[in-house]
Each structure stands twice: as C-alpha cells, then as structure tokens.
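Consider the tokenized backbone below.
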C-alpha cells in the first residue's frame, strides 16, 4: 500500500491507497473518482506503518479494497460508511 502524509493548517492529512489503484479512475452513476499521483502518491509501506499514520491522522482518505479493509479492521472506519466505487472501495474519516 502507498502512504502519503501532509501537515496542514487543520492537522495531519493522511492518504492511503492500494498500489494497484494509483492512477486509476473509478465511476458510479453519481461520480467519477481518480486516484491521482499528486494526492495519493507517496511511499510504499507495510500495514504497521499505515496503522501508525492513521492513529496520528486528523483527516484520512483511503482507497482500495486492502487499504479500506485494514482501516475497518483497525477500527478507524465503520464498514457501514465505506463507499463502493466501481471495482474498488473508498473511505474517509475526520477526527474532531
């Protein structure tokens, strides 16, 4: 999986995606979603590093079946809040 962190004025923004979805575009009837290199491109890391980053995140965007499953299994995202986007999955969280 690929991880990118950004410090923003609102806190730590974390973007995580499966390696195979980077650069792909997914469509539903309501929207088109592109997993851009600019936003999601970062370092390929292991699951422990992703969980560590999500623990520190104020905002997170997560794309891909494996990345979303990890976020759900680790308790960051409720399965009921996961979006199905064509052949992949997407989730977000905001810590307030």
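A designed sequence for it:
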């Amino acid at each position: 999986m690929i991880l990118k962190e950004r410090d923003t004025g609102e806190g730590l923004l974390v973007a995580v995606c499966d390696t195979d979805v980077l650069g792909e575009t997914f469509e539903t009837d309501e929207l088109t979603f592109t997993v851009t290199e600019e936003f999601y491109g970062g370092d390929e890391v292991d699951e422990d590093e992703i969980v560590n980053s999500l623990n520190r995140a104020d905002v997170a965007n997560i794309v891909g079946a494996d990345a979303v499953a990890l976020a759900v299994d680790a308790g960051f995202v409720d399965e009921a809040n996961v979006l199905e986007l064509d052949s992949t999955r997407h989730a977000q969280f905001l810590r307030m």
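The chain has one domain: 2-94.
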